[in-house]
Amino acid sequence: xxxxxxxxxxxxxxxxxxxxxxxxxxxxxxxxxxxxxxxxxxxxxxxxxxxxxxxxxxxxxxxxxxxxxxxxxxxxxxxxxxxxxxxxxxxxxxxxxxxxxxxxxxxxxxxxxxxxxxxxxxxxxxxxxxxxxxxxxxxxxxxxxxxxxxxxxxxxxxxxxxxxxxxxxxxxxxxxxxxxxxxxxxxxxxxxxxxxxxxxxxxxxxxxxxxxxxxxxxxxxxxxxxxxxxxxxxxxxxxxxxxxxxxxxxxxxxxxxxxxxxxxxxxxxxxxxxxxxxxxxxxxxxxxxxxxxxxxxxxxxxxxxxxxxxxxxxxxxxxxxxxxxxxxxxxxxxxxxxxxxxxxxxxxxxxxxxxxxxxxxxxxxxxxxxxxxxxxxxxxxxxxxxxxxxxxxxxxxxxxxxxxxxxxxxxxxxxxxxxxxxxxxxxxxxxxxxxx
Length: 436
Hints:
The chain is an alpha/beta fold. It has 16 helices and 15 strands. Helix 4 (85-99) runs parallel beside helix 12 (312-326) and helix 5 crosses helix 11 (294-306).
């Protein structure tokens, strides 16, 4: 048994002192705190893979547009609750250019990050029909979205898609929908944390069933066009970002500036509501909100109550980035494809030392290399593996916290530096020897 790079007493003591009774249930921020503490006390570098924060500079075209807007005096004006006209137009064009879906500018509404877009979507969807009071998550997924529903007091159901890929998805999904209480279906594509991408067959299944059972699909495109197996970066030419919008009119697309444009700090995204859904009148919404259709309830009631608008200058940044991308002047995919390169190197190291990729395929194809991937080790539980890796100066989060029923961890590539590949290789060699 070789000594671990970080003394076990440092990690165990920190877990105890932080009041974490079960490390398998530790949150992302708790894992981050313990890693930072252990790094400081031990004096040894941690390989931090727990936080899903962009590790690249913000897109220059956005920064320049936002600075100009501020210099022009925009900061003293309230933004229109419907959004900056230039951004609405740019978002509509962006959806056409990179998804090949026609969407009117009126349905493209800026929000304070996809987090607020999801929050407002949940509010609106859960109030649209009093008989439909439950949100369904196709997991694994972003844990905070479930916390949002907890805050709202809205019911939710979840299932882990691991065993229900391909044609198995239909019956599993319909089993929930035919009960009659599902207001909306939520998933991310590419997926956080697993980086699986829904196939066209799966998207068709979701869209067709959503239309049949009148459920709204909330498609979280936080990692827009970041399936690096194919080049999705050429505007108005296939291949396009896959979407459920090809198969149903009941959808909200959440397009974030955080990852694809590395613009996370300014909290800017666009909620794109289908033309049909935007103008749909639900009896329960109409009774509660003066006869307004879905789209206007979303903006003039939900968003207005939440924040009375989205950062004015950040809207100029998002508009400039989307417009430049549509004109072919800004290839955002080229700026973030380094995440895929990192994932490829990291996976090779982990697999060579006895780990396996948990969510490993989309249909017949291996998953893409990207912002996240998932690892497991032999018969270790998620909690055991998360804690054991901390002794080797590697921090990642438990898949169980994301709604997954699989044993393993989520690895994020955003903060990996070139010097850490050799370091990880050395430490995982010791890990493998100590855990035969």
